[in-house]
Amino acid sequence: MKRTLSILCLATILLSCNSNEKISKDIFEEVNKSMEVKKLSEVDILEEAMKWGDEISTEAQNQLLSALQTAISDKGIPEAIAFCNTKALPILKEVSQKHQVSIKRASLDYRNPTDQPTENELSILDAYAYNAENNIKSEPNIQKLEKGEVLLYTKAIHIQNALCLNCHGAPGTDIDAETLEKLQQLYPEDKAKNHKIGELRGMWSIRIPKSEVAKRL
Ligand code: HEC
Q1: Does 10 map to a domain?
Q2: Has residue 97 been placed in a domain?
Q3: Phi-psi category of residue 103: left, alpha or beta, with phi > 0 → left and psi -120 to 50 → alpha
Q4: Alpha-carbon distance 215 to 186, whole Å?
Q5: Residue 54: how many CA atoms within 13 Å on its side-chain side?
Q6: Could you tell me if residue 29 is inside a domain?
Q7: Can you give the residue ranges of the Tll0287-like domain (predicted)?
Q8: From the CB of 194, is ligand 1 less than 6 Å away?
Q9: 28, 60 in Cβ contact below 8 A?
Q10: CB-based contact 209:48 (threshold 8 Å)
């Protein structure tokens, strides 16, 4: 009897020992896993923000371009200026609201003063301008703002073809007299003329809240 008891005791001790070990191992693995998840998610969030920024800027660009082309074929270039003047920003606002982000175009040589760069945007635009002048391809960029709570996605916009020159090229040769008059009326301080194909025109600048990116993962 005494022997059975001591064997039982030993078994209990061994068992409890075992389960203690198991619990601490489980906790250890759990902690490890959560640290790994945390570490991974920072990278995941930046990658997702880059992917999403690409999608949003493409969507915004397509919306603007198709609206611009319709306006030109319906009313001609000079009247399309008035269309850009009243419709470009509302179109961007609509796409912004749809995705809960804030989309703008920023430019060193802006036409609409709303598109003046902020300090953060200025240094990125300078880098894109340097690249364009030196035939270096500019890649989209993600920058952390506000302690990482907001991610700033940017992507260079170039003068891609002759369509752009109708309103952003040289007055007299690319821009006709009627269009020039409209531009002067609406944008007396216009800096967005005299561009050539391939030059930097500006960039997409999209402020994406980190919390919105996290929802997508
Ligand atoms: C019908 C004339 C017209 C054509 C064609 C045109 N734009 Fe513009 N663009 C404008 C006007 C007007 C604005 C100012 C819009 C506003 O007030 O929000 C503008 C603004 C911009 C801006 C915002 C920065 C700024 O200067 O305020 C970018 C970037 C831009 N255009 C790029 C292009 C590109 C690239 C093309 C060719 C694919 C193009 N545009 C074709 C008239 C035109």
Answers
A1: no
A2: yes
A3: beta
A4: 41
A5: 8
A6: no
A7: 65-209
A8: no
A9: no
A10: no
Structural domain count of the chain: 1
CA nearest neighbour of 79 among 179, 164, 177, 175: 179
The whole domain housing 146 covers: 41-216
- The answer to whether residue 26 sits within a structural domain is no
**Ligand 1 touching residue 121 (CB < 6 A):** no
Q: Is 105 in the pocket of ligand 1 (CB under 6 A)?
A: yes
> pLDDT by residue (tens digit) across 87-124?
999 999 999 999 999 999 999 999 999 999 999 999 99
179: left (phi over 0), alpha (psi -120 to 50) or beta: alpha
Q: Whose CA is nearest to atom 17 of ligand 1?
A: 85
Is 202 close to ligand 1, i.e. is its CB under 6 Å away?
yes
Which of 65, 86, 116, 168 has the most ligand 1 atoms within 8 A of CB, as the residue to mutate? 168
pLDDT digits (tens, 9 = 90+) for 120-142: 999 999 999 999 999 999 999 99
The answer to whether the CB of 128 is under 6 A from ligand 1 is no
Among 75, 93, 108, 111, the mutation site with the greatest number of ligand 1 atoms within 8 A of its Cβ is: 111
